């Protein structure tokens, strides 16, 4: 990837990694329900799950090259359906945060990240847009994977800290926050499908 594309990559990371998504919302919910200390343990699971997932996607991208790029467009519909499902569940929970988080553990964080369709599709999209047109080398894919850590675990940590610092606001205005989050998720899903 040419260095001139780095600003575009960082902007894309900022936009996608810090907007509502499964792991970000889970981080927020854990912080609201269990506090910062327990949530940081769960965040370590998110970090581990992210590193496993992004490395797996990088290796598969390296092995199958541009073939994966041909299917990214079709995979976006699965990701959009998953995001719509999340939006519906957040909207339906009526401000009750306890229905979102059943536990806040290292394992739960890792599983959330390993099944995070938004993150996996994001990784595939980044690799097909920013790396594959220039290189199929595993070292290049893994270098970009490290940069993507800013989007995944970096965004999750920001949402976790926001939940721990803004807990009273989210508790007092839970229903309104849920409506806004579900609308944002639905808009993200529409953007994925139409974009």
Task: Explain what this protein looks like in three dimensions.
- The protein has 195 residues and is mostly helical.
- Helix content is 81%, strand content 0%.
- It contains 10 helices and no strands.
Order of helices and strands: HHHHHHHHHH
Measured by DSSP, the beta-strand proportion falls in under 5%
Global morphology: globular
The main sheet comes to:
none
Uncertain ranges: none
The secondary-structure class comes to mainly alpha
Mean pLDDT: 79
Radius of gyration: 17 Å
Total beta strands: 0
**SS element count, helices:** 10
Amino-to-carboxy terminus distance: 23 Å
> What portion of residues is helical?
over 70%
Short overview:
With 195 residues, this protein is an all-alpha fold. It has helices spanning 6-17, 22-34, 36-64, 66-92, 106-114, 117-131, 138-148, 152-165, 167-172, 174-194.
Considering the chains and any ligands shown, give keywords for the structure.
single chain; 195 residues; mainly alpha; globular
What topology emerges from the helices and strands here?
Layout: H1 6-17, H2 22-34, H3 36-64, H4 66-92, H5 106-114, H6 117-131, H7 138-148, H8 152-165, H9 167-172, H10 174-194
């Amino acid at each position: 990837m040419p260095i001139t594309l780095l600003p575009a990559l960082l902007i894309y990371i900022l936009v996608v990694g810090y907007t509502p998504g499964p792991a970000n919302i889970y981080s927020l919910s854990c912080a609201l329900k269990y506090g910062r200390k327990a949530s940081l343990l769960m965040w370590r699971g998110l970090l581990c799950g992210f590193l496993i997932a992004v490395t797996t996607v990088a290796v598969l991208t390296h092995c199958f090259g541009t073939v994966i790029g041909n299917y990214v467009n079709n995979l976006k519909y699965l990701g959009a359906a998953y995001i719509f499902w999340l939006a519906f569940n957040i909207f339906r929970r009526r401000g009750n945060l306890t229905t979102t988080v059943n536990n806040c553990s290292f394992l739960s964080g890792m599983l959330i990240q390993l099944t995070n369709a938004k993150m996996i599709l994001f990784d595939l999209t980044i690799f097909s847009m920013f790396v594959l047109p220039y290189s199929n080398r595993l070292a290049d894919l893994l270098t970009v994977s490290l940069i993507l850590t800013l989007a995944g675990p970096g965004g999750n940590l920001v949402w976790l800290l926001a939940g721990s610092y803004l807990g009273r606001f989210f508790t007092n205005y839970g229903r309104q926050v849920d409506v806004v989050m579900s609308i944002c998720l639905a808009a993200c899903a529409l953007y994925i499908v139409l974009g």
